[in-house]
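Translate structure to sequence.
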């Protein structure tokens, strides 16, 4: 009888390992453990044995039954998992849409294209991006930047006042002051954003436009660093042949100050329609950070120097793309935007 049991065990386990459906599994269960199952019959016939043998064989038979039962439930779990997996596979939904249904693609606005290009150039030179609010304290827009109370830019004809102390920033330069108050040198940032001036819109003016401020503060910074930086920027922006020219200028917050021209990318400097016959195009204002500006923001003016610059984003876009009227940039006319 022992032999018979071992044979049952071997066969059952073999069948179970090959079972590949719930039905087959059930068949095996009934075939061995059901009322008339092979193992059940063996258990029933135990009564015919001697007490000692009955005990021993009974124990063995029960072990085998437990083993088969355990194997069946293990196999059940396995089959369930496979079933779920198959279900997931067969029910997968294709969420892609065929390309032909798309009528028109959107794209970046020309100002965003220029913003991204300028940012990329300066990030490539190790600058990080700083931000400041468009609604700004008058003292950060002016006093922190060494601009006296009677300076014409502080006039309400030039700047939008919300209260006596709060304005719409007229330049991105207050971000210089904010950054110097928050960070210790070395500082190397650009600050892109909107600025506001009380101007009437025409071909070259708008009450709202965009600037990118640059600020570097460290030990041993000189005008040569400024020039090298702007030269690199101009070549990357307008092409490797581009030359730059620094003209003396005045800003209250830089000393010395300059305006920077680039050689006309269209005619290479000979003079044409784009540069209005000049050969040069003005693109930005810059200079060495005024010692008063460093001191106002808590930076030791004996130990540190810096340079700063402010680029007009509309100006760059107009030059680069030959846009004749600044107002096109804000009208969202698809006929204009589709050119980019
Ligand atoms: N803030 C100046 C402007 O709006 C530009 C500038 C920035 C000049 C930084 C010098 C240094 O015209």
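Result:
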């Amino acid at each position: 009888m022992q032999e018979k049991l071992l044979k049952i065990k071997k066969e059952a386990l073999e069948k179970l390992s090959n079972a590949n459906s719930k039905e087959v599994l059930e068949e095996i269960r009934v075939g061995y453990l059901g009322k008339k199952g092979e193992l059940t019959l063996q258990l029933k016939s135990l009564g015919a044995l001697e007490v000692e043998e009955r005990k021993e064989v009974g124990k063995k038979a029960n072990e085998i039954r437990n083993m088969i039962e355990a194997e069946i439930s293990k196999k059940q779990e396995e089959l369930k998992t496979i079933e779920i997996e198959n279900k997931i596979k067969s029910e997968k939904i294709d969420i892609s849409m065929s390309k032909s249904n798309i009528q028109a693609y959107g794209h970046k606005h020309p100002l965003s294209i220029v913003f991204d290009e300028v940012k990329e150039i300066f990030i490539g030179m190790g600058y990080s991006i700083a931000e400041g609010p468009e609604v700004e304290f008058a003292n950060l827009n002016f006093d922190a930047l060494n601009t006296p109370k009677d300076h014409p830019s502080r006039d309400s004809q030039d700047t939008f006042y919300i209260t006596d102390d709060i304005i719409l920033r007229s330049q991105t330069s207050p971000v210089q002051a904010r950054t110097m108050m928050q960070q210790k040198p070395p500082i190397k940032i650009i600050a892109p954003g909107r600025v506001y001036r009380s101007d009437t819109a025409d071909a070259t003016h708008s009450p709202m436009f965009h600037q990118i401020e640059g600020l570097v503060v460290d030990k041993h910074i000189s005008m040569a660093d400024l020039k090298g930086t702007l030269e690199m920027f101009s070549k990357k922006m307008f092409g490797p042949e581009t030359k730059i020219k620094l003209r003396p200028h005045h800003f209250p917050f830089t000393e010395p100050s300059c305006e920077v021209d680039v050689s006309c990318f269209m005619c290479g400097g000979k003079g044409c329609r784009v540069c209005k016959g000049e050969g040069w195009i003005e693109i930005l204002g810059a200079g060495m950070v005024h010692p008063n500006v460093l001191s106002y923001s808590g930076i030791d003016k004996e130990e540190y120097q810096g340079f700063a610059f402010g680029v007009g984003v509309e100006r760059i876009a107009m030059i680069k793309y030959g846009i004749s009227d600044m107002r096109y940039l804000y009208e969202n006319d698809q006929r204009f935007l589709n050119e980019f």
